[in-house]
Each structure stands twice: as C-alpha cells, then as structure tokens.
Amino acid sequence: MTLPEPSSPAEAATGTPERGGSALEAVRARRSWSRVTDEAPTRSELEALVSAAGRVADHSSLRPWRLIELRGADRERLGRAIHKALGQDGSSTKPLRAPLLVAIVVSYRKSDKVPRWEQEAVAAGVAHTLSLLLDEAGWGVIWRTGHYTRSKAVAKAHGLGKDEALLGWLYVGGKPDTERGGPRKGVDAAAHLTPMPGKSSRGSKKNAADAAKDESTAL
User: 126: closest CA among 186, 66, 73, 211?
Assistant: First the structure.
C-alpha cells in the first residue's frame, strides 16, 4: 500500500494534511500542544468524543477503563495532591497549564482470558484515540504523566478503587493562533516493521492458499 499524495498545495508545502479528510490524514496531522488557551470543550462535546473513543479493540468487551474530568478547582486539588506525593508544601501549578484535564484510569476486571497488561493497553488505546479525536476537533492536547502518577495521594484525590490505576492525564485547551504544535519527525516504517525471524514467509503464503482452497472445497 502506498500513502496518498498530498491533497492540496497547502499540504504539499507544509507537510501537514488539511482537516476534513480520512483517518490517515487526521493521524498524520496530530501534534502535541504543550501550551493551550483557556478555551475547552463542553461536557456534551467531550461525551460525544469519548463515546467514539470507546470503540477501540477490547478483548472480551471488558471496558476496563474510565475517564475523570477535571476543571476549575479540581485542578488545584490535584496540584495539592502532587505536592503531597512529592513531600512538598503548597500546590503544584502543573495542572493549571490547561483548562481541562482528562484523567485516564485503568479499571482492572477479573478475567481468566484477559491479563492486566492487556487491559492497560485498552485504556491506553482509549486515551490515544480520544487525543486524536480532540485534535481533529480543533483542540490542543498533550498526554502528561509523572513519577507521582501512581502515588497514593494522587490516587486518593481521584477517588480510585483498589483495582484501579492512573495512566496520566490529557491536558486539553484551545490551540493558540500564535503557536504551532510540537514538531513530529517522520517515522522510518521499515525500521519498525520487520518480518518474522526464521524461515522465509513464502512457504506460509502457500500453506494459507492451500488452506483457503480446502475450505472452499468443503463448502
């Protein structure tokens, strides 16, 4: 498969796809925004995007995740919890960098088929998909963590249960007109996409073709 040609002169000049296209274009256009304005999506706008983000691959449909919305004074409470986790007085100003924070929580479900690491992957998938959807909707987003993310003080501030853990926060706000998102270097796909080591895969293709032929004969 070959990537599509730039869809417009602007894309050809800047390397940034224009909005309103395919999922591929939306992913290629994504950037992290460390600085955002005080604007933020409404609760109803956020719910619509969360509903879509929840359609990620989810083994056994466990839905081992939930999101916590932090606005206004909620961010100050988180700032106090961060400083408590660090053994410091006062309140951290880090949560005030955006008007909306979305805490990503993995809620572990009991399952003989789906291990905890796989449930964490589902929660992370929801968070990443939500960040893409927010970016496509015109919002600036960055996923932030920290060594205090799994601290007791921060967990208590979020009301986490004993079978829950925090994966960080999406910091969400408006995109400043005077700034651009962080730079993204292109990915060398060949360096990250490799064949299975060992014997050539040509034999396996023949076996797959034979299996398909046998199946069609059986039908």
Answer: 66
Task: At 103, give phi and psi (nearest 5°).
Answer: -75, 135
Secondary element (H or E) of residue 169: strand 164-174
SS3 of 174, please? strand
pLDDT tens digit sequence for 164-186 = 999 999 999 999 998 776 677 88
At 5 the pLDDT is 46
Look at residues 172, 168, 166, 131 and name the one whose alpha carbon lies nearest to residue 152: 166
- Rounded distance, CA 30 to CA 12, Å? 16
Give Rg (Cα) of the chain. 22
| Strand-by-strand arrangement of the 100-107 sheet | 65-71, 100-107, 164-174, 139-144
Q: Band the pLDDT of 216: cuts 50, 70, 90.
A: low
DSSP secondary structure of 109-128 = ---SSS-HHHHHHHHHHHHH
Angle at 100 between CA 27 and CA 80, to 5 degrees: 130
pLDDT in tens, 62-89: 999 999 999 999 999 999 999 999 999 9
The burial class, CB within 10 Å (0-12 / 13-18 / 19+), for 205 is: exposed
DSSP for residue 195? P
